[in-house]
Amino acid sequence: MDTAQSNGRNPTGSMPQLSVLLPTRNEKDNLELLIPRLDSVLREIGVPYETIVVDGDSTDGTLAMAQRHCTLAFQQEGTGYGLALKQGFKAASGEYIVTLDADLSHDPKFIPSLWVNRERAEVVVASRYCEGGGAQAPLFRRILSHVLNWFFTRSFGVPITDLSSGFRLYRADVIKGVDFEGTSYDALEEILIRIHNDGGRIIEVPFTYLPRVHGASNARIVRIGLRLLVTYFRLRRLRRSN
Q: Is the four-CA dihedral 108, 113, 119, 122 of positive or negative sign?
C-alpha cells in the first residue's frame, strides 16, 4: 500500500477520537469544497479527529490534493468501494469512524447527529428513508433504492430503513472485526447484516441526500442493483433463524 502522510491535520494535536474516511475517485473539485466544511463541523464538535482518503486510481489530481490537506491519503489496492472501506478501516486510528461520500451528497452538517448518538449503538446510519430523511435524486433511482432497501430489510431483519447509505458512524473496534467479502457497494448491506447477526445495535438518524456538485457519479444504479441480487444469494446463509 502506497501511503503518504501529509501535514498531520489534527487541530487539537492529540490522538484522534474520530476518523473520517473518504473513498474517492476523481473527486478533486468536490474534495476542495468538502475538506473546509469537514474541518469547520468537526471543530465545532470539539473532538480530536483525522481525515483519511483512500483513492481509487483518480486521474484528476485527487490523491495529490488529499495528501496536501488530509491527515492520511493513499492509493487503494485493487478496485471497488468495498475494498476502499476495508483498507480505510485498517488505516484509521480513531475510536469511532465516520464514512461519507466525497461528492458533497453527504453534507458534513449531519455528522453531529451521528456523533451524539455514538453510545447508543455500534453503528449509526444517516438514513434517507426514516422519518425526517429525504433524497434529492432522480425518481427512478429513488424507487429502485427504496425497493432494494425494503427487500434486504425484509430478507435479513436488519431494523433500519436505509441499508445502502454509506454515510455512517462505526465503533472502530466493531467494524475492524467484521470480515466482509463484498468488494463493491454491496459491502454496505453485508456489513450491517453481519453486525446485526452478531448482536450489534444499529440505529439510524435522518439526513437529506443531495445531488453531487462536480463531476459524474462513479456508481451505476442498475449495475449496483444486479450486484445486490447476487449478494443476496451469497448472504442467504447469514439470515437469522427466528
A: negative
Is residue 4 scored above 70 in pLDDT?
Answer: no
Q: H or E segment at 97? A: strand 96-99
Identify the CA nearest to 117 among candidates 96, 101, 136: 96
- Whose CA is closest to 20, among 96, 83, 76? 96
Q: Which amino acid is at 136?
A: Q
Grid cell at residue 142: 429513488
Residue that is written with C-alpha cell 438514513 in the block: 127
C-beta neighbour count of 137 within 10 angstroms: 16
Q: pLDDT at residue 184 above 50?
A: yes
Q: Are strands 96-99 and 168-171 parallel, antiparallel or unpaired?
A: antiparallel
The pTM (predicted TM-score) of the whole model is 0.88
Q: Number of C-alpha atoms within 13 angstroms, CB side, residue 206?
A: 8
In Å, how far are 39, 152, 156, 187 from 233, measured between CA atoms? 41, 11, 12, 14
Q: From residue 207, how far is each of 29, 105, 106, 131 by CA, in Å?
A: 23, 10, 8, 9
Query: Which amino acid type is present at position 4?
Result: A
